[in-house]
């Protein structure tokens, strides 16, 4: 969370940018963003109990301006449109683990992302499942890598690796996306 917020601050992303947290869970990332001054925050989760929990956290923290919606990101409603920043912490991983047509669901995830994120908007993904190379491949159509965020490293058998991958992508402009879909 700290690295995501630090990156947004470093880029001087305006505090009123529209931010979508995909699969918000308990909504704590949105609370931290609000505490750091961000004012246009939306969280979605397809689990009604996750949204109920995040509503309780929002109430406890007195952050009533955070918008929380029950939404399946793989079938986003027309309301989810034009975000400047999309953040995913663990949700693409969850989608990828779905035993029922995971490949198709991953493709749908990328399509959904293209429909909710503005051209040239930023997508920040944190994954415990996928390496940098794998994520670059998943998001190769429509997205360009901007930066890899530092994550803890470990050493095993003389080789150094990361247990978490955190990348920032930028959605290509409309002209570059014209061959997509
Ligand atoms: C590993 S949890 C991460 C939660 C939160 N982002 C965090 O960092 O604590 C994944 C979340 O994604 C949600 N999720 C999985 N598939 C989803 C989908 N298709 N649409 C919306 N939410 C989804 C789950 O309900 C769960 O809350």
Automatic annotation (TrEMBL):
Pfam families: Methyltransf_31. GO terms for cellular component: cytoplasm. One of its GO terms (molecular function) is protein-lysine N-methyltransferase activity. Coiled coil: none annotated. CDD domains: AdoMet_MTases (cd02440). It comes from the Eukaryota. Residues 18-147 form the Methyltransferase domain. This is Methyltransferase domain-containing protein. It comes from Pavo cristatus.
